[in-house]
Amino acid sequence: MNIHVVAIVVSVAIFLFVIELVRRRRLTFKYAIGWLLVSAGAIFFAVFYRLLFACAAFLGFELPSNFIFFALFCVFITLSLLLTVFLCQQNNRNDVMAQKIALLEFELKELKKKLKVE
Amino acid sequence: MSPADKKILVIVPAFNECGNIGRTVQEIRHTIQGVDILVINDGSKDTTAQEAIQAGGMVVSLPFNLGIGAAVQTGFQYAQRHQYDIAVQIDGDGQHDASFLDKIVGPIRADEADMVVGSRFLEKTGGFQSSFSRRMGIGFFVHLINVLTGVKIKDPTSGFRAYNKKMIALFSEYYPHDFPEPEAIVLAQQAGARIVELPVIMRPREAGSSSIRYFKTVYYMTKVTLAILLYMIRQQRGES
After folding, report:
1. The overall pTM is greater than 0.95
2. Cβ–Cβ of A95/B66 closer than 8 Å?
3. Which residue of A31, B10, B39, B53 is surrounded by the most CB atoms within 10 Å?
4. C-beta atoms of A95 and B177 within 8 A
5. Within chain A, where are the H helices?
């Protein structure tokens, strides 16, 4: 089997899998968009691989495979950084909510106590 | 309103402090009258909350452990909501001697300071002075804060502090989450606070263990140093 066919099949599979995840509401579009763009790019270069080779040569990579690894590496670093930012935001929101809940729970208890006394 | 009848909230962060917390709350109640004591139970797995309630404190229980900074901030938020004039932070592990409470509130009452730090190292008062390696670390922060902000605080890791309304408003909005004490000094200075340090005597812990263990020390030092440097960058960018 031709390596290009394998590359196309794999990238199309990932693309469809992400779309399926969105359809099943396991992933919201906001978080799927990054993966969709990356897999669409992968499909594009798997089909027009000569363009990929030209890009690699233009940028000075000796082997197109090195260029592919480098590009993937950059993509994953960016995605994981974005995920860390998101995680951090969630963590902060979680803390704020825990503080609010604790304070509200305390005030509710105090209120109930007051009501009982009256 | 005379300075004597200012509304004071004593914030006591506590994480698994059964055996210490009851005594701490009672000590505060016996030494200073007319203050509200708010214990922030930071997701303790033991009987901290019950013990604190029995001793006569108000207890706010966080649903899970958020760390000392977020716990203390919860106290500031309560103080802000209920319009306290003064907030005092005192550790729940019994290391801080409540008999100094009145003293560290003094400069706030007299409106001579926005923030008061109770210090072990200001005078040769004796008492608990921490281990040699801990003192080395504290010394590093003393110099870091002094060089970067010009503020001279001899005990920047002390969690025995008093704040006025201005500081309560500031810290209920934002307060550093882990290892907050040295950072809080820098934040206060950047907000233009008048910071005063007063000598207090501290005691070694009687039950339980400190939340800062040896393996955490390196992380602690790095995190606080980086955080302080980042505050400085942020402030410079804000000014330009």
Report:
1. no
2. yes
3. B39
4. yes
5. 3-23, 29-47, 49-59, 64-117
